[in-house]
Write a structure and sequence with these properties.
This protein has helices at 5-15, 21-30, 35-86, and strands at 90-96, 101-106, 121-122, 127-129, 154-156, 169-174, 197-203, 211-215, 222-226. It is of the alpha+beta class and 240 residues long. The protein has one domain: minor pseudopilin epsh fold. The protein has a five-stranded antiparallel beta sheet with strand order 3-2-1-6-5. A four-stranded antiparallel beta sheet has the order 4-7-8-9, covered by helices on one side.
Length: 240
């Protein structure tokens, strides 16, 4: 006997879930966000970015500046160590190339321009040499003068490694005993106070976060310093 197809159809219609027009509208209205909610979220994100981004950039800049000072210190100490190990004069040279500070350790009879590109290492991007004024430097000038800038290392001509006022390379030169010297052949007792010096560093994105590496004594003590709130006694320098 054939089933009653009408009863089956009625039963399927009877059990089919019923959704009214009003309930459908409610579902549609509860999905998504209003314009006010979106604008509120955008405003909060903007405020957070305005506070967090500068703070983050400052943190990164300080880390880069600290790393740059550590590399300069390491370069000077490497030159000093190699000078004592090889019993010869060794020079640590520093320059700015394409807005980036670079350093190299080499013998003083090799001018900086004659070094290969591979001999130069770079400091972190954004770290620059802090040298607002230039000090007069002439060959055989043996005066010990105070200058207002944060960088007082002797400047040399990269073409011949001679001391020049217009030099674009800063150097720290150590003799075979590790003493800072003015000439490669100088003994520790023959050198001048000008053989000492400092390399000041700053970051292009920071105003008050200087770092410096200082050859502080005639026996070759090298140390690092950072910006202070007061000037160093007898100078116009803030990094010591």
């Amino acid at each position: 006997m054939k089933p009653d197809t009408r009863l089956i159809c009625d039963r399927q219609i009877y059990h089919k879930p019923f959704t009214s027009l009003s309930s459908t509208s409610k579902i549609r209205n509860t999905t998504g966000y209003t314009i006010i909610e979106v604008l509120s979220v955008v405003t909060l994100i903007s405020l957070f970015s305005a506070i967090a981004v500068p703070a983050w950039n400052g943190f990164v800049g300080r880390q880069q500046l600290r790393a740059g000072a550590n590399r300069v210190y390491w370069a000077m100490r490497t030159a000093q160590s190699e000078a004592k190990r090889q019993k010869i004069a060794v020079q640590a040279s520093f320059r700015e190339q394409d807005n980036q500070v670079q350093w190299a350790v080499h013998r003083p009879n090799i001018p900086p321009n004659d070094l290969s590109d591979a001999a130069w290492e770079s400091l972190p991007v954004g770290v620059l040499i802090d040298d607002q004024t230039q000090e007069p430097q002439e060959e055989d000038n043996d005066q010990d003068e105070k200058f207002g800038d944060e960088t007082t290392l002797i400047r040399v001509d990269p073409k011949d490694n001679k001391v020049r006022n217009s030099g674009t390379v800063y150097r720290a030169l150590f003799n075979y005993k590790g003493c800072p010297v003015y000439k490669p052949t100088d003994e520790c007792t023959q050198t001048s106070l000008r053989a000492k010096g400092r390399l000041g560093l700053k970051h292009k994105n920071l105003k008050n976060a200087k770092r410096c590496v200082i050859v502080s004594t005639l026996i070759g003590v090298v140390r690092t310093g950072q910006e202070q709130s007061k000037k160093e006694s007898g100078t116009n320098r803030y990094c010591y």
